[in-house]
Records
---
Amino acid sequence: MLGNFSYHNPTKLYFGDESLNFLKDELKNFGPVVLLNYGSGSVKRNGIYDQVVAILNEAGKTVIENPGVMSNPTLEKLNEGVKIARDNNVDLILALGGGSVCDYSKAVAASVFCDGDYWDKFWLKQEQPAADQRLLPVACVLTMAGTGSEMNAGTVITDAEHNFKVGHVFDDRLMPKFSILNPKFTMTVPDNQMKAGIYDIMNHIMEQYFSDFDDNTSDYLSEGLMRSLITASRIAVKNPQDYEARSNIMWTATWALNTLIGCGKHEDWMVHMIGHSVGAWTHAPHGYCLASVSMAYYKRAMKEGLPKFVRFAKNVWNIGGDGMTDEQIAEAGLAALKDWMLEIGLPLTIGELGATAEMIPGITSTTVVYPAGYLNLKPEDITDILTESL
Ligand code: NZQ
Ligand code: ZN
């Protein structure tokens, strides 16, 4: 392990089918006004909203509701949330939903007391809040497994007017104070979103794993997480009500992106950069956007990162490799990945998401490109990857 790093994750987790019981006690640590952010209504249909509101009422909180946080939350909706928080002297922001609601809640928390243009400062210029800026505390009751937003400081926001989707990872002051993870809450997630979440988790691990060549404990942890996810996903797509599989997926999602397996790694994230841009143009679920460009991307990365792709084939996909060249082993690993993606039911092309050849110049121009992982892509390479993925 050759890198230098610090590791600090302050988010407290409550996990399991009884985890919501801990909300009441946690609420004692915060002031009386709670901004409750949630999405387009799934939490009302499945009854989670009623359970959470009952606990908030019992705890004597004044609840300010902010519904309608859309999947892939927009800058316009962020502005609305900031105004609500400013007008109501909010003490705690409670996110009730998936990654979009959690991300959004952190974005509001960072922006409420920001002097000036928070969009420009945090997302366009990628600055951190000033050391003395007040930040509202955020907590999450998670209803969907995938992003890891429940235990990280990431916030992805879309400027819908300009088809520009951009993430900002805040410093650890913005990590949720606590998150409640009840795998039962994920049982009503629609089939396509469950699958998108599964690939999002897989790709988070791959983005961190496919960088560097040193012997690093983080990579062994990544391999274990990928193996667990592959096993659990195969069970969950056949029987979405399998609690054991859904709980393993939920727990793997959290560890896939809570900064642990990035320790000592340079990390990649170019599949996410291209995927975000595909998402801004097609509005497809985040994990589907990643899946649709992955094969073309990793075929390229394999050439530069061959030893790691050989290791991926052997340690994640159990490719024996006897009598095979390194290239053949690595290719067999990618073929196994592709077979698994097909088995899960993931899209393998951007065409399946509604992207067209005419959109490719626009998708390319809104993709943030930087040297990462094993590749140093130029915009024309992004165009080639998108064309191959069509
Ligand atoms: O709108 P609601 O009613 O909440 O419905 C949601 C939404 O339609 C629904 N859903 C969630 N839980 C449900 C449920 N439906 C029924 N029962 C439940 N229990 O599922 C749909 C998708 O939800 P969403 O929150 O959008 O999905 P996800 O968790 O995948 O979050 C995606 C967002 O997270 C960002 C993505 O870019 C995207 O904007 N990401 C955040 C990251 C981070 N913080 O580190 C990293 C990721 O790479 C990702 O970029
Ligand atoms: Zn992701």
---
Amino acid sequence: MRKKVIAGNWKMNMLPNEAIEYIDKLSKLVKDTTNEVVLCVPYIDLFYALLAAQNTNIKIGAQNMHFEEKGAYTGEISPQMLKSINVEYVIIGHSERRQYYNETDETVNKKVNAAHRVGLKPIVCVGETLEERENGKTAEIITEQTKLALEGLDEEQVAKTIIAYEPIWAIGTGKTATSEDANNSIKEIRKEIARNYGQETANRVIIQYGGSVKAENAKELFSMSDIDGGLVGGASLKVDEFNKIIHFEQ
Ligand code: PEP
């Protein structure tokens, strides 16, 4: 049985003091959950967030990284740097990075491989645009993105990679995919992984849904057969709302 992983993506929000306050509050509320709770915070908050999350069941992740170990890449952060302070997760290929910062399937693949080399758990985002969806290309786009992202990994590394299916038209827009639609897309992704790495590996991969998840729709989405939790943007900025999403079963 796959675990549900509920990950917050704070994007470019929250100062260190706000991060500490938030984690102090959330950690008390989620101490009994069996779901995996992850907060992907801005780089500047990482160290404070890791300290605040010590001795709690909240895991900390970054929102991006470079694929090289070190070098002349001004302004960048390496996988080794994240690992050295005990960051556990890293979001790779978020659509905002694909859209605004020239992230490509090739750089996503390099980053996914680099993350596994140092033992970081990548959360890899895939998803179609509205135009691609309207042209009936959703399955083709998301299976191709998944295939390219995972190239070069062995089965064990694939099994330890989280995929976040995030239809781009649903991110930050208030529009959500229906639970059936999201589940079907995620089944396509799992089928693609099974084709390349075997059904057993595919059955182990955690595949989240992301795109305007909130307390009121989390239960319906996360109760579907193939949706293993979510990547949550806006609604993860409010402790009480995010806590309700984490406790979606109740
Ligand atoms: C995201 O940032 O990955 C996301 C899904 O954002 P939102 O929940 O705000 O749509």
